[in-house]
Amino acid sequence: MSLAFILMGRDGRARRGRLETAHGPVETPAFMPVGTAATVKAMTANAVRATGAEMVLANTYHLMLRPGAERIERFGGLHRFMDWPGPILTDSGGFQMMSLNALRTIGEAGVAFRSHVDGSAHELTPERAVEIQRMLDADVSMVLDECTPFPADEKTAAESMRRSMRWAARCKDAFARRPGYGLFGIVQGGIYESLRRESAEALRAIGFDGYAIGGLAVGEGQATMFRVLDFTALCLPEDRPRYLMGVGKPADLVGAVARGIDLFDCVLPTRSGRTEQAFTRFGPVTLSNARHRDDPRPLDARCACPACRKHSRAYFHHLINTKEILGAMLLTWHNLHYYQELMAAMRAAIDAGRLAQFADAFAADQAQGDIPPL
User: Fold this and answer.
1) In sequence order, which residues have a C-beta less than 8 Å from that of residue 237 and are 6 or more positions away?
2) The pTM is what?
């Protein structure tokens, strides 16, 4: 294996580790901010680093369309292009096959699609997806897969999963091994235990540097997602990182870490920051609500981010009502800081053998909710 993963401790099924990449280490469990188009929206690279993030995610599909993988390669790769010297993981474009399904046709060779930008025709094969990610200089590349939509009957989920497994083998053959770089397989199979087990076994037989669980957080609900994680995580190798794709809310992260997941990504903290919502210890806060108009309190009294140290809720209410860009910037900064603090707290809890107690305290705070001032 070209990508080193050191498993340093456990607390129940939760794991404490370190992923060693060509561009530096990542302490796990870890949350990766999403920089789909080579930027974490409303944030500078320095601001993302200041939140404590060590690794970010970018997207093969979007970058192949704009500005083009060949252009990014000419500029020295994605790290230099976006001023992110740390590790980068690139999604392969499988999710866009589902979210942009009206624009694509899937076959055994790969996926043919029309660009959502200008309607131009493109083809993305497993081999091309790997090639693009090499051009981007991604530390972690993902296999091309078909993200099975929800709901899907068992026959549809099986056909989709087995095609993804055939594509995974082609991606492995196309991947050029280099020190510090790795390729992750993606477990599919919908909500069906037998299919998830079959998929995990197929990927283990091929052999990957890490194993992702895809096709969740697509409408099935938290209880079903946790049920799928309960049996799927146990099918994955103990000595390789486990990545839950596209998840999620803070409570999702806590529950998934307890089930043995090491890596996460999600657009939620950045998208919420651009749509008036802040995450706090006591749950989400919508700053456009009139009750914040004269509220002198910070978003979260214990938070050390610039948004909480320097500004009141009343100020955020004003920024949102006047549609000032600074509101989106500061709320995004806060949300990413909150997510990184949450992950750091879980790492410390695992180290101390107290993750269960941490999860109970987290749930109690969230249940209390955001209490308005007297």
Assistant:
1) 204, 211
2) 0.97
Which stretches of 2-125 are DSSP H helices? 45-50, 60-65, 69-74, 78-81, 94-99
Active-site residue (options: 265, 295, 300, 370):
265
CATH 3.20.20.105 fits 4-266, yes or no: yes
Catalytic residue, from 11, 91, 300, 370: name it. Answer: 91
Residues ≥6 apart with Cβ < 8 Å to 60: 69, 90, 91, 92, 93, 124, 129, 132, 133, 136, 142
Any bridge partners for residue 140, and if so which? Answer: 89, 182
pLDDT given at position 260: 98
Q: Is 209 a catalytic residue?
A: no
Which stretches of the chain drop beneath a pLDDT of 70?
Answer: 1, 97-99
**Amino acid present at 358:** F
Backbone φ and ψ for 98, nearest 5 degrees, come out as -85, -50
Say what the pLDDT of residue 94 is: 73
The C-alpha atoms of residue 266 and residue 275 are separated, in whole angstroms, by 15
Which of 70, 208, 57, 59 is closest to 131 using CA atoms? 70
Pick the closest to residue 247 from 264, 222, 233, 226 (CA basis). Answer: 264
Known catalytic membership, residue 230 = no
Q: Which amino acid is at 269?
A: P
Burial of 193 from C-beta contacts in 10 A (0-12 / 13-18 / 19+): middle
* Residue 328 CB neighbours (<10 A): 20
d(CA 315, CA 330): 11
Measured between alpha carbons, how far is residue 90 from residues 63, 79, 107, 194, 329 in Å? 10, 12, 23, 28, 24
Nearest in space to 264 (alpha carbons), one of 23, 22, 54: 54
Q: How many residues does the chain have?
A: 374
Residues forming a β-bridge with 185 = 211
pLDDT of residue 2: 80
Domain ranges across the chain: 4-266, 273-368
